TrEMBL record:
Coiled coil spans: none
Lineage: unclassified sequences, metagenomes, ecological metagenomes
Xref: InterPro entries: DHP_synth-like, Dihydropteroate_synth-like_sf, Pterin-binding_dom
GO molecular function terms attached to this record: dihydropteroate synthase activity
Protein name: Unannotated protein
Domain Pterin-binding, chain residue ranges per copy: 1-249
Length: 249
């Protein structure tokens, strides 16, 4: 499994350990993540949680402008986590190698950026236009997620990019005010049925849990046993240790 370690240039990430304030601290965190077992870096400049202040795309890019080339110089994969095509285009031009599309690739503008750079695209499931406007999934989540990806891959086909898509069930996002117990059951249902997302023959990408609770560890184990191709991770050493314990490394 290829791990993307998380670096957040947004000041309001829920995971304080991931927050950096410029290229120097970003480089130090990235080097630490790589030393702990990450293979690549996922960089974001706009928080997607309820507590995050939404800033103009220009401000998001200002946070990333000098960080992207600093991390690109490490010579490892570098994804840009954004829902804005303006930011994705600039980040790819500055050295990023993959789009982690926080809009779920639901606009032609984002597909055009991906086509222009012919880059891999993490396509997450969203139940709304972006992570901040998601709705609760009240029906069977697996069927709902499958239907979403059928539509997104039809979009990908218009741009000749199906083979560039990486499937993300979107469990790193959640509607506002969703109680943890509901979210836990939702994630457990999705994670226990990841095989349903392999019908298209495309790799899977999972934003792994990072909180230290029995339920979060249980969810991580369910995911790791199914051996997705990619993961987005805050603490790579914890994930690598569990892989080794499960005999997957």
């Amino acid at each position: 499994m290829l791990i993307y370690g998380v670096v957040n240039a947004s000041p309001d990430s829920l995971n304080a350990d991931s927050i950096v304030m410029g290229p120097d601290t970003a480089l130090a965190r990235a080097q630490m993540l790589l030393s702990q077992g990450a293979d690549a870096i996922d960089l974001g400049g706009q928080g997607s949680t309820d507590n995050a202040t939404v800033v103009p795309w220009q401000t998001e890019w200002e946070r990333l402008e000098h960080v992207v080339p600093a991390l690109a110089a490490l010579g490892v994969g570098l994804s840009v986590d954004t829902w804005r095509p303006e930011v994705a285009r600039r980040a790819l031009g500055a050295g990023a190698t993959m789009i982690n599309a926080a809009d779920g690739m639901q606009t032609d503008e984002m597909w055009q950026v991906a086509a222009d750079f012919d880059c891999p695209i993490v396509v997450p499931f969203l139940s709304g236009p972006n992570p901040r406007e998601m709705e609760h999934v009240r029906t069977d989540p697996v069927g709902t997620i499958v239907d979403f990806f059928e539509a997104r891959l039809a979009d990908a086909d218009r741009y000749g990019l199906r083979h560039r898509c990486i499937i993300d069930p979107g469990t790193g996002f959640a509607p506002s005010n969703w109680p943890w117990e509901e979210r836990y059951l939702y994630q457990k249902r999705v994670y226990s049925n990841l095989d349903a997302l392999r019908r298209w023959g495309l790799p899977l990408y999972i934003a792994l849990p990072w909180k230290d609770t029995p339920q979060h560890w249980e969810l991580m184990e369910i995911v790791l046993r199914q051996q997705p191709e990619y993961a987005r991770v805050h603490y790579p050493d914890r994930v690598r240790a569990m892989e080794q314990r499960l005999g997957l490394s």
